Amino acid sequence: MAEIEQTKLCRSCAESIKTAARICPFCRRRQRGFPTWIILMTVSAAVAVIAFVGGFIWMMEARWPLNPAKFSKHRQDLKVIEADIKRARKTPEKWIENLGTNRFERKWTTYELEIRFLDQDGQLIDKQLPPVGYPIYTGPSFWLTGFITNSGKYAWNVRKFEARFFDQSSNLVNVETLYKTFFVAPRSQTAFRLEMSELPTQNTNLVVKVRIQDAEDGNSREN
After folding, report:
1. pLDDT in tens, 93-136
2. How far apart are CA 12 and CA 27, in angstroms?
3. Element holding 58 (H helix, E strand)
4. Which residues pair with 30 in a beta bridge?
5. Domain for residue 95, yes or no?
6. How many CA atoms lie within 13 A of 213 on its CB side?
7. Contact 181, 216 (CB under 8 A)
8. Count of domains in the chain?
9. Which stretches of 119-218 are assigned E, i.e. beta strand?
């Protein structure tokens, strides 16, 4: 009894051919392996997935770098310009507000439960106490203001300032470290304002120079 030969359909032309055939005798197409169109679609899909994943990683790295920029290497990108000392006009608390608005010859300093008014030479001209049991919430006596310029490509969270005070003869009077966080975008300028309870000297004609002592990468995932 003759053995029945097993057959299959050609993937390209659908003719019946031997199962073991490697090339279709009708269309001459190779039978083993995947058709070319399947291979091309698979490769295209793989390339698209790789491109998508790569783009996503690039965007995430740009927004939240895995390796935050080190401020020590970019210190020169951040500069402080137009630093100035401004006297607070009035305090937030109405009782203190009613005592004066710090104009011209008057300024105020705070000592827990006592308000002292001084003239331009630092001489005491008035001293008042609040009513018994009256809460006092005072604001700063002075503001240290200016602008932070960022010439670099990284965003920064500036968090530590060094202020140097000089008299009119350019003599160094005092150095203070002030803390407050300000976000500075790349290649931009940001205003800042720092609270000061008092000046380092009674001389109000001071020149102040401010520099950034410390900052963190503004896009870091650690922030």
Report:
1. 444 555 554 443 344 444 455 667 777 777 777 777 666 555 55
2. 7
3. helix 36-63
4. 23
5. yes
6. 15
7. no
8. 3
9. 124-128, 142-150, 156-166, 172-184, 188-196, 207-217
Q: Find, among 182, 85, 98, the residue nearest to 141 by Cα.
A: 85
Query: Which residues, 6+ apart, have CB-to-CB distance to 4 below 8 Å?
Result: none
CATH no. for residue 76?
A: 2.60.40
Tokens (6 digits) for 27 = 């269309």
170 and 71, same domain (yes or no): yes
pLDDT digits (tens, 9 = 90+) for 12-32: 787 887 877 778 888 878 776
pTM equals: 0.52
Q: Are 144 and 77 in contact (CB under 8 A)?
A: no
Reported as a single tens digit per residue, the pLDDT across 159-201 is 999 999 998 888 999 999 999 999 999 999 999 999 887 777 7
